[in-house]
Design brief:
heterodimer, A: Uridine Diphospho-n-acetylenolpyruvylglucosamine Reductase, domain 2, Uridine Diphospho-n-acetylenolpyruvylglucosamine Reductase, domain 3, 3 domains, 8-stranded antiparallel beta sheet, 6-stranded antiparallel beta sheet, 13 helices, B: about 240 residues, alpha/beta, Rossmann fold
Chain lengths: ~450, ~240
C-alpha cells in the first residue's frame, strides 16, 4: 500500500490516498478492507467520486480482460477496468460498437455503470444501464453476487448512478451495437438564440438519434444561446463516399497530440476564451457531412490530457438538467446568471435527455447543460447559487462532474435518494465503500 | 509457433500473451489461481486466439513444474518458446520488515525460476531446440541501495541465464533475458514512476522482437540499456553515496 496524491479529471480536489492496482477479481477480494475503499477506473469523473482521503482507492484499470463474446447476440462480458476505447479498438473492426458512449472513450465499464453515463442519443437509447444485462459485484461482506434485472434487481438498479458505493463492480455483460461503418452522417445547424436552439432540438429529434449543441457562453441579450446544433446518425455502407468504402470499419490510431504540461493559469482569460469559442463555432458549423466516430463522438480525445489546459488550479464541470416542460423558462435564467457571473465558463454543451432510469441516475427527461469553470475565487458561491436555481426549477446536477454540491441540496435533487439509502444500509451498513464525494454529499460516512 | 507462458495472467506477461495471440501463435498458460487463469484463457479466445489452453503451476511449489510442462507438451506437441514472467516484488523497506515474504521472494525469483528453467531446458533440447525467455530485471545489473534483496535474486537469475545462453545456444537453446527498467504494472503500483517508465504494451512489443531475433539480453524500455551502462560504470564510492 502506498500513498499517492490523485484527483479526478478536473484536477480538483487533489487528495492523498492509499492506492492499490489489483488486476483480477481475486486480488480485489484480497485487498478489501473495512477501513473505507472506493474503486477507480480511468479517472474521468471530474470531481471527487474516485478519490478517498486517507482511505483506500482501488485502481481497476489493470482489470482489462474480456470474459466472453457472443457474436450472434452481440453480448460482451468483460472486467470492469476495460475502457470503451479498448472495446472500440477490438470490436469495431468486427462490426460492433458500445451501445452507449459518453463524450470520451477513455472511461471504464465500471465507471460507466457507477455514473450511469449518457451520450448524445440519450432520448433514444437511454443511459449506459440500457446496455448492461448483468454484473458481478463484490459486496462489503466479501461475497460476490450477480445482479441483473431478474436477479438482485434492487442492487442492479441502485448501482447505476450509485457512484461505486454499494460494492465493487468486478465485471459486466454488455449488449453492443451492430454497425456497418465507423462513420456518421452529421449535420450542423447554426442557431441565433436559445429559443431557436430548443426549437431546433424538437425539430431534429425525430430525424436523428444523436444531437448535441454547443453554445457561446458569453453571448448575452438577444444572442443568448447562440451556437451550433450538431445532429447525426450512424452511416450505412451506402452513405459512405467511394473512397471510404474500402475500410468502412476503420479504427483510428491512438491520439498523438497531448498537453504534456499544465498550461499557465493566465492562458484562459476572457480574450482567449472568446477566440477559442469562435474557433469552436467555426469548426462545429462547418463539419463534414460524413464524420469518423472519433470526430463525431470524441473530438476532445484527440488532445490527450486536455484537462491540463486549465492550469494547475484545476477546473470543475457544472452539469445540470431541468424538466422538458416549459424548458425555456427554466433554463434561460440559469444560463443568463452564468454569463453575468464574471467567472470564465468554457466548453458549453446543451443536450436534450430522455426518460429517467436508475435510482440515482442523473438523466431525466429535459434539457441538460454542461459548463466548465476553472477553479477561482467566488466559484463556490456561484455554484451554490446555481444549485438553488436548479432546485427551484426541479432540476438536478450530475454527481459524476460535481465537486461542490452540499449534503443539504442532494435530497432536493434526487427524489429516490431514500430508496437508494435503504439499499446502501442493507448491503453496506458499515460504510466499507466510501469516497470524498460520498462524505461530502452524504451518500456514505 | 507454440508458446508456453508462466505469468501471463498479469502485467507484461498479459500484454505479451495478447501479442502472441494476435499473430496466431498457439498458447498454453501456466498459473496458480484457476479462476484467474481461466479468465486469461477466455480473454485471449475473445481476442481471436483459436488455440489456447492452461494448466496449474505455482512458482512457489517446484513439484508443480513437471506436471505443468508435461501438460503443455502434450497439448502443444512441441514447445517453441517458453516464457517466464512470474515473480515477486516488494520495496526494500518492506522486505527488511517481512522475513517470511523475503524468503518467498528469494525462493520464487531465483531458486524456483531456475528449477523451472532447468526442466524447460531439458524438454526444449530433447525436442531439438527452442527459446527460453525469462524476465529478470535491471535491478540485477548492479548492487544498489533500493534493491538489495530483490536485486540479489535477479542478479543470480541474470547470471544463470547468461551462462545458459553461452552453454547451450550452439545446441539449439536460445536464451532471452528480459531486463525491465521501470514498467507501470501491478508490481510497481504505488512507486513513483521515473521519467523513463514504460507501458506494458510497448514493452511487450520489444520483448516479442527480442524473442523473434533471439537477442540474449533485452532492456525494456530500450533506454534502460544506456542508463544501466552508466550505472554499471560508476565507482563504488559514488554508488555508496547516491540513492538509486
Amino acid at each position: 500500500m502506498t500513498q499517492q496524491i490523485i484527483a479526478g479529471w478536473g484536477n480538483y480536489p487533489r487528495v492523498e490516498c492509499h492506492v492499490h492496482t489489483p488486476c483480477s477479481a481475486s486480488e480485489v477480494q484480497a485487498k478489501l478492507t473495512p477501513e473505507g475503499t472506493i474503486a477507480r477506473g480511468w479517472g474521468r469523473s471530474y470531481g471527487d467520486p474516485a478519490v478517498n482521503e486517507r482511505g483506500v482507492v482501488l485502481d481497476l484499470t489493470g482489470m482489462d480482460r474480456y470474459l466472453g463474446f457472443d457474436h450472434d447476440l452481440a453480448l460482451l462480458r468483460c472486467e470492469a477496468g476495460v475502457s470503451l476505447a479498448q472495446i472500440i479498438t477490438d470490436f469495431a473492426p468486427r462490426g460492433f460498437f458500445p451501445l452507449i458512449t459518453p463524450g470520451t472513450k477513455f472511461v471504464s465499464v465500471g465507471g460507466c455503470i457507477a455514473n450511469d453515463v449518457h451520450g448524445k442519443a440519450h432520448h433514444v437509447d437511454g443511459c449506459f444501464s440500457s446496455s448492461v444485462l448483468s454484473m458481478r459485484v463484490l459486496l462489503a461482506d466479501g461475497q460476490i453476487v450477480t445482479a441483473s434485472r431478474e436477479e438482485n434487481s434492487e442492487l442492479f438498479w441502485a448501482c447505476f448512478g450509485g457512484m461505486g458505493l454499494l460494492g465493487i463492480i468486478l465485471d459486466a455483460t454488455l449488449r453492443l451495437r451492430r454497425i456497418e461503418t465507423t462513420y456518421f452522417r452529421q449535420k450542423a445547424v447554426v442557431v441565433r438564440n436559445l429559443q431557436e436552439l430548443l426549437a431546433a432540438f424538437d425539430e431534429y429529434d425525430a430525424q436523428f438519434p444523436y444531437s448535441v449543441a454547443w453554445i457561446d457562453p458569453l453571448a448575452r441579450g438577444e444572442k443568448q444561446g447562440q451556437g451550433v446544433l450538431t445532429v447525426g446518425d450512424h452511416a450505412s455502407l451506402d452513405d459512405l463516399p467511394r473512397a471510404k468504402r474500402a475500410d468502412p470499419l476503420g479504427v483510428s490510431a491512438p491520439s498523438s497530440l497531448a498537453l504534456p504540461f499544465d498550461m499557465p493559469n493566465f492562458s484562459l482569460n476572457p480574450f482567449t476564451l472568446r477566440v477559442l469559442n469562435l474557433v469552436i463555432h467555426q469548426v462545429q458549423a462547418h463539419g463534414a457531412a460524413i464524420a469518423h466516430y472519433e470526430k463525431f463522438f470524441y473530438p476532445l480525445d484527440a488532445i490527450g490530457e486536455w484537462n491540463r489546459g486549465y492550469g494547475a488550479r484545476g477546473f470543475t464541470q457544472y452539469q445540470f438538467v431541468v424538466p422538458l416542460e416549459d424548458g425555456y423558462r427554466r433554463i434561460q435564467p440559469i444560463i443568463q446568471r452564468i454569463a453575468e457571473s464574471g467567472q470564465l465558463p468554457f466548453l458549453n454543451v446543451l443536450k436534450k435527455l430522455g426518460k429517467e432510469q436508475g435510482l440515482l441516475s442523473f438523466p431525466r427527461e429535459g434539457y441538460t447543460f454542461a459548463i466548465d469553470f476553472p477553479i477561482a475565487t467566488g466559484l463556490a458561491e456561484l455554484l451554490a447559487e446555481l444549485d438553488e436555481m436548479v432546485i427551484d426549477v426541479e432540476g438536478r446536477v450530475y454527481l459524476g462532474k460535481d465537486a461542490y454540491l452540499s449534503a443539504e441540496s442532494l435530497p432536493r435533487m434526487y427524489p429516490r435518494l431514500e430508496e437508494w439509502r435503504a439499499i446502501k444500509a442493507k448491503v453496506d451498513p458499515e460504510n466499507v465503500f466510501t469516497s470524498n464525494l460520498a462524505r461530502r454529499v452524504g451518500l456514505a460516512q | 509457433m507454440n508458446i508456453v507462458m508462466l505469468g501471463a495472467t498479469r502485467g507484461m506477461g498479459r500484454a505479451l500473451s495478447r501479442l502472441f495471440a494476435a499473430r496466431g501463435d498457439r498458447l498454453f498458460l501456466l498459473g496458480n489461481i484457476a479462476e484467474d487463469l481461466q479468465q486469461s484463457v477466455v480473454d485471449l479466445q475473445t481476442r481471436g486466439s483459436t488455440e489456447v489452453a492452461s494448466a496449474p503451476c505455482d512458482l512457489l511449489d517446484a513439484d508443480t513444474f513437471r506436471p505443468a510442462l508435461e501438460a503443455a507438451e502434450r497439448a502443444l506437441g512441441r514447445m517453441d518458446v517458453v516464457v517466464v514472467s512470474a515473480g515477486l516484488f516488494a520495496p526494500q523497506e518492506q522486505l527488511e520488515e517481512d522475513y517470511a515474504f523475503t524468503a518467498r521472494m528469494l525462493q520464487a525469483n531465483f531458486t524456483n525460476t531456475v528449477l523451472f528453467c532447468e526442466q524447460a531446458r531439458e524438454r526444449i533440447l530433447a525436442a531439438g531446440g527452442g527459446t527460453l525467455c525469462v524476465f529478470s530485471s535491471v535491478a540485477g545489473d548492479r548492487g544498489r541501495k533500493p534493491v538489495v534483496l530483490y536485486g540479489a535474486s535477479k542478479a543470480g537469475l541474470s547470471h544463470y541465464l547468461e551462462s545458459l545462453d553461452h552453454r547451450y545456444r550452439q545446441e539449439g537453446l536460445v536464451t532471452v533475458c528480459v531486463k525491465p527498467g521501470f514498467v507501470k504494472t501491478t508490481m510497481t503500483a504505488g512507486l513513483k514512476p521515473p521519467p523513463f517508465a514504460g507501458e506494458p504494451e510497448a514493452v511487450a512489443e520489444d520483448v516479442l522482437r527480442a524473442i523473434d531475433r533471439g537477442s540474449p539480453v533485452v532492456y525494456v524500455p530500450p533506454v534502460w540499456s544506456q542508463i544501466m551502462r552508466v550505472i554499471r560504470a560508476l565507482p563504488r564510492a559514488v554508488m555508496r553515496k547516491v540513492n538509486f
